[in-house]
Amino acid sequence: MSGFIGRRWTLCAMFSVLALIATGCTSRSGRSGPVSPAATGSSTSSAAPSKSGAAIAKYGQPAVDAAVKEMLRFSFGSGWSSHLISIHVDQVTRNDFAPVLSYLTAEAASRFNTVLAKVLKHDKIAIRTLEGAIFFGIKGANGSRPIRSGKVVTDRRYTQVAVGLDRAHGADRMSVTFTAKANINLQDQAGKNYVLPTERKVRYLLVPNTGADQKSKPFLIAGWLNKMTAGKIQPAK
């Protein structure tokens, strides 16, 4: 991400990481709300999700609730991973993305690995594509790096979650859509602290997980749409 932070930029990874559906960046958002404790360990309360009757009719209310919590946990845990943000881009390995892969179907994981293989070879296009979904190797244009003491990621929050049923590809898939936001805290070589505001519009297409880990991950991601925006880096208050 070196060279991009410090000016506003937008990446629309229209399922470019997983390349599973037609292009088109869409989002559906409502009122803003803080992150759910069940989703990320935050001590704040959650925003009430807006749920589709079709999804509830097919999967049931408890399953829809579980899917929403799972995708909030995944979005913040993977998209704003303090470990991935802080690691140097040249030191990133396949193992660093193992938690991400555990949430994907076999087909989606294969497509993700195709992009990741190019990232590990320092392919710039692949790096930008993956950055649309997951922050890693953050370095500010002013030479700043993620802070070493304190919380790297703060002020996590999200817009109202919309849940629906996607029938575009011959099979019903639950769709979970929201905008996630968080601040990344940086420090320059002189010890001055900065804040980078970020947000990511996401839409996940989910299928039930029939594997051994279905209790902890009731659904797997078959499709994944991201539109990421990094704001202007600002001095910390």
Rg calculated over all Cα atoms? 17 Å
Beta strands, count: 10
* Net shape: globular
Q: Could you report the average pLDDT, rounded to the nearest whole number?
A: 81
Strand content: 25-35%
The helix tally amounts to 7
Q: Which stretches are poorly predicted, pLDDT < 50 over at least 5 residues? A: 1-17, 19-48
Could you state the order of secondary-structure elements as H and E? Answer: EEHEHHHHHHEEEEEEE
Would you tell me the structural class of the helices and strands? alpha+beta
Largest sheet: 10 strands, mixed
Q: Give the fraction of residues assigned to helices.
A: 25-40%
Task: Give the CA-CA distance, first to last residue.
Answer: 24 Å
Describe what you observe in this structure.
The chain has 237 residues and is of the alpha+beta class. It contains 7 helices and 10 strands. It has helices spanning 37-40, 53-59, 61-79, 82-86, 98-101, 106-120, 124-131; strands at residues 9-13, 32-34, 50-51, 145-146, 153-159, 162-166, 173-187, 193-208, 219-230, 234-235. A hairpin with a 6-residue loop joins β6 (162-166) and β7 (173-187). Strands 1, 2, 3, 4, 5, 6, 7, 8, 9 and 10 form a 10-stranded mixed β-sheet that branches. The longest helix has 19 residues, at 61-79.
Overview features:
single chain, 237 residues, alpha+beta, globular
Give a short synopsis of this structure:
This protein has 237 residues and is an alpha+beta fold.
